[in-house]
Amino acid sequence: MRSALTMLGVIIGVSSVILLVALGSGARAEITQALQGLGSNLIMVVPFKINLTGAMTPESLMQMGSPTTTANKLTLKTVDEIAKAIGDPKRVSPIIQRQSYIIHRGRKKFMLINATTEKQFDVRKLKPQSGRFFSQAEVNSAKTVVVLGPSAAKSLFGDEDPVGRYIEIKGRRFKIVGIHKSMGTTMGMIDLDSFAWIPITTCIRMYGKPNPDTIMVEAKSQESVEKEVAEIKKTLSKEFSSDEVSVITQKDILSIASDATRIMTYLLGGLGGISLLVGGIGIMNIMLVSVTERTREIGIRKAVGAKTRDIMLQFLIESIILSLIGGAIGVALSSAGASIYEAIFHIKAQVTIWIILLAFVFSMMVGIFFGVYPARKASLLDPIEALRYE
Length: 390
What we know:
Blueprint: H1 2-36, E1 42-46, H2 58-62, H3 76-86, E2 92-104, E3 107-116, H4 120-123, E4 128-131, H5 136-140, E5 145-148, H6 150-157, E6 166-169, E7 172-180, E8 185-186, E9 190-191, E10 196-199, H7 200-207, E11 214-218, H8 225-236, E12 246-249, H9 250-293, H10 295-303, H11 308-345, H12 353-379, H13 383-387
Parallel strand pairs: 3-10, 5-7
Antiparallel strand pairs: 1-11, 1-12, 2-3, 2-6, 2-11, 4-7, 5-10, 6-7, 8-9
């Protein structure tokens, strides 16, 4: 029972370190996969400043910028100017995002609505699952047509085919012309298939304020990304300051996401390390109790010739073995915990060999560090006093 209680702190500490770091690594991998899925030659223009230089810190990530930090000064004219700069209007498409309730036969769902042009589907490499996407003619004439993501369609229509049916958005009837293929989720939380897509002209009539929240540009090729970014920045510099607009690429977003998730992983690992440290203190306390209870045993050993280093080694080995057994149990629990977490939250936890080895080494170091003091105390006992101890 005493050994089990001694190991309990290490078990909790090791499993916490592995599981928390695994969750952080899994989040990083999922974000990277989601961003790479958008394509390697995607360029985005956003109406706020993003700091892409220097080392990313928690403070810089917090102050990186958001759509509310500055007034959105992007316009549809800006879209035309960018199209002229890259020489191909088919590779440029704006997005206006709004939120609204979507109603169908009493079912009411709150959804994000992406208002865009017909070019967006080509830029994002989206394919129809059923039906079709809206056309240029429908955009030009501001038709009330909508394309739904698979999750959005299922939440409103269940297993029925919604193509050709009607839904209501902000008091207007929209005809569903198509369902796009699944884009998956980001970090298991943001469902990219739960959006509705409508023509941008229709959105402007409904909501006013034709200011794109993002302008998506598909570079001609991966090799031409930097050249086209330079052209876009040159064009935007004539009208906007560096604080009013940013031009970012997939590479930039991956760098920001990697820095953010790396910091998160370090913080999670630090929290697990604190648990392991507490477990080490528990080992030291129990070992001190053990030294007190076994004082007569120590006295007998020293009386028959055991040296100071023999006694110290005895208790130190005991401490290390307890730590390693606790570490092994912690690894098993963390693996089981990762599987349970994935099943419940659908977020992959990456339990890698290096973090298991790191947790094992750390647990052994905890055993050595916190076992030294009790072992040394035991080894320095006077044999005569130890034999007389009651």
